[in-house]
């Protein structure tokens, strides 16, 4: 539900595709996020591979490289929410330098979940995300296939 202006920035974070293009992609991302938001708008980034993952590949060199390149950019531009897929579970980070990272990839074969120091929630369950954007807050809910609430988080606008 969109009850307020939203800017969605899709970015190609697939390690196998951007290999050799990381510098150009990183520079583009930094420029794109430097553009001022429309008044009252929220900026949300969407990407395929997660920068923060407590899943099986969470400590792979490609994931750590993506995190090292892009997490500082997300933080510098005060992006409140980064959505990713790829990992077959639901994960939400504790805010990392003000950014909440959510992995939602549980429509395929589920994978076991793990936990890292940055992990707030990690669960191996089929689900979908319901994101409500309001002028003063973002409300994110993960709902399982039986309609039960798996996770919820509210991000308020910094003052």
CATH architecture assignment name: 4-Layer Sandwich
The major sheet is characterized as: 6 strands, mixed
SSE arrangement, N to C: EHHEHEEEEEEE
CATH fold group: Purple Acid Phosphatase, chain A, domain 2
Largest beta sheet: strand ordering: 1-2-3-5-4-6
Distance between the termini: 23 Å
Rg on CA atoms, Å: 15 Å
Under the CATH scheme, which class? Alpha Beta
- The CATH fourth-level homologous superfamily: Metallo-dependent phosphatases
Spell out the key features of this protein.
159 residues; alpha/beta; Purple Acid Phosphatase, chain A, domain 2; 6-stranded mixed β-sheet; 3-stranded antiparallel β-sheet; 3 helices; Calcineurin-like phosphoesterase domain-containing protein
Summarize the structure.
It contains three helices and nine strands; from the N terminus they run βααβαβββββββ. The protein is of the alpha/beta class. The chain has a single domain (6-126), classed as 4-Layer Sandwich (Purple Acid Phosphatase, chain A, domain 2), CATH 3.60.21.
Could you characterize the architecture of this molecule?
A hairpin with a 6-residue loop joins strand 4 and strand 5 (100-104). It is globular, with a radius of gyration of 15 Å. The chain has helices spanning 15-18, 22-34, 61-76; strands spanning 6-10, 42-46, 81-84, 90-93, 100-104, 119-123, 127-133, 137-144, 149-156. It has 159 residues and is of the alpha/beta class. Helix 2 runs parallel beside helix 3 (61-76). The protein starts with 5 loop residues before the first strand and ends with a strand. The strands form two sheets. The protein has a six-stranded mixed sheet, with no helix packed on it. A three-stranded antiparallel sheet has the order 7-8-9, with no helix packed on it. It comes from Pseudonocardia hydrocarbonoxydans. InterPro entries: Metallo-depent_PP-like (IPR029052).
